[in-house]
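Milestone M4 deliverable, item 7.
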Amino acid sequence: MTTINAQWCTAFNAALQAHFALTIQDAGLTDTELPRYAGLGPKEAALTFGEDHDLDRVDHGWFG
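Output delivered:
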């Protein structure tokens, strides 16, 4: 299981920004909700979060 620490949060935040143009704060994620994604690496956690909330990815073109 991945430990949620500052390094993981920074990488997760970067992945959210890269894939969905939002931050942990923008998404409203709290310390209570983050452990749901603790078993995943930061990138996989961001992509799973996006799927869970039906977010459109910004790193895919409109026609892709």
